[in-house]
Structures are given as structure tokens and as C-alpha cells.
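Proteins fold reproducibly. Next comes an illustrative record:
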Amino acid sequence: MSDPLITSRDNSILKRARAVRDGKAREQIFIEGLRLCEEAVRARSNLEIVDIICTEHFVETDRGEKLLDELSQIGKRPALVRDSLFSTISDTKTPQGIVILAVRPSATPHALLKDRERAPLLVILCRINNPSNAGAIVRAAEAASATGVIVTEGSSDIYSPKALRGSMGSSFRLPSWTDIAIDEVFAFCREHGIRTICTDLSTERSYTEIDWTGPCALLLGPEASGLEREEIARSDETVRIPMQAPVESLNVAVAAGIVLYEAARQRAERS
């Protein structure tokens, strides 16, 4: 490959990559790793790729060569860097030698309602402050055929590098509406006839005992403290996940997956 090799850490592309990685240039997102970059290329109808940065040896692997060939077909060529310089932009302990910078996906409430063939099944991340959990929830939501994700103010950025690794590409595909006040979320759901349902240890009804086939939204609270009592009171319904004592709680991403798959089961039976 004839592209010139970047040899200075002060190169403008590398500076921008570090700014995006660190959340200082929020108009773009930082996508790292072979698998995640492959997912980004597959999702390019939803994702505008801006820059590719890879090590001089990345192209020597079969999957690396194939990925760069796909990128070249859409007019994108990589900036090549030395392995030692790539470590200055990487967000992982064992870099795979490839980073893509892309435009942050637009976040609108209208995108959540685009699927007219299915009743909305939304997931609301309310102050979820662990990026790995946030990403895992998005991944579970897509796997269980949810139609969109809402992320409230004070939650982790679902497009941060760690959250993107947790979502394994689901964040590129699943419609989202981010950085929204919880009051606005409740108002949106009421306006569109979407029932808000949250988990609450003090309630008696199991998550399997309610109807998930209509328009609904699963509201999930912070890992440590859970939802505030006012937020629980404002929800249309509360459910609990039965657990064998002495276990009292589950990781929020695990809880999301359990409930969402019950919703998916009911919807599959109804269809």
C-alpha cells in the first residue's frame, strides 16, 4: 500500500482520534477493534465513516485486508501508523491495530417509532452510569427485538468506546434517543400510548404476569441505587424478577435481558 506512514504522535489525525476517544469531540465516535469495525462497515447505511487509522501490519491479516478492501470500495483509505504510535490512540490493553472515526448517529424521538409493523418495545436507560452495562443492555435490546433505546441525562454515553465494545455493534443499528430528561421521556411515552414498566423488588407481580405485546417501555435504573421512588410511582406498571434467596439483585444488563426475552416470547406467540 502506497499511503505515507504517520510517524509523529502530533499528527492531526491522531490528535483528533484522541479527542474523540476521550469524549472531547462529541460530534464523532471512536470505534476500535477488528470485529467492531467490521460491524461499523456493515452498518454504514446508518453510520457515516469519516477516518480510518490502522497499523502498517494490520493489512497483512486476511480479515484486515478484506475490511480495508470493503472500505476502499466506498472511497475510504486508511491513515497508516507505526505500532508504537497506534498505542497512543488505542483504548484497549491489546490493540488490534484498527480504529474508525464516524459521525455520531443522530438521536431523535421519531426514529423510535419508524417501525410501523411492530408495537414499540423501548428500553429506557435511566442514569445507567456503567458504560459496559449500558452497551450490554443495548445489545440485549437488539437481540430481543426491541425497537429502540432512550438514554436519560446522567447516563453513560452509549457511543463511548467501552459502551460500544459492550454493544458489539448493536448501537450502530438500534434507533436511539439520548441525553433526555426523564420528565421528557415520560411525556413522550404518554403522548404515544406507550406503557412504562419498571422493576421493583417491593412489588408482588412477576415480569411474566403482564402483557408485553402492546406498546411498552422497560425502565431501568442505576446499578447501585436503582430508580427513585418518584420514578417508580410515575411508571404505569411495576414488576419483579423472582430470585432464590439470599440473592437480592441482579446486574442491570442481566435483568434487562431476562425481561426483554419474556417480552419477545409473548410477542412471538401473538404474531
Q: What stands out?
A: The mean pLDDT is 94. The chain has ten helices and eleven strands.
